[in-house]
Amino acid sequence: AFFANKVEHESRHCNGKVLQRQGSSSFDRVYTANQNCGHAYPTFLAVLWCAGLLCSQAPAAFAGLMYLFVRQKYFVGYLGERTQSTPGYLFGKRIILFLFLMSLAGILNYYLVFFFGSDFEIHIKTITSAISPLLLIP
């Protein structure tokens, strides 16, 4: 909602009309940042849901909140200069990778239980809980 509000505000500020694509470079930056964030959310939601369901909910929720914060930083950085958005983008990629690895560990544990009877769920939850605070390191 924040991103869409910013696009609408910038559109009205630059053009005087609602949501026209042609406009100043500031409108183009806001519009592009909004589109980039919108295109990244389905992937984020899929890996967040899988990581929470298959592995551990607390580290997945922490990573999800961090990702939302990072996307906000990316969006605001994109409004300035495009180079200011790079740290937010790279940080977001790292969080998505963490969530993907959590999902992969949960799937691997399921198949280990199914085929061999070995359950490593406690170990996986301990490792992901220990690694999740490392996401705070820029």
From TrEMBL:
GO terms for cellular component: endoplasmic reticulum membrane; nuclear membrane. GO terms for molecular function: enzyme activator activity; glutathione peroxidase activity; glutathione transferase activity; leukotriene-C4 synthase activity. Homotrimer. Interacts with LTC4S and ALOX5. InterPro entries: 5_LipOase_AP, MAPEG, MAPEG-like_dom_sf, Membr-assoc_MAPEG. This is Arachidonate 5-lipoxygenase-activating protein. It is found in: Endoplasmic reticulum membrane; Nucleus membrane. GO terms for biological process: leukotriene biosynthetic process. Keywords: Endoplasmic reticulum, Leukotriene biosynthesis, Membrane, Nucleus, Transmembrane, Transmembrane helix. It comes from the Eukaryota. It is a multi-pass membrane protein. SUPFAM superfamilies: MAPEG domain-like.
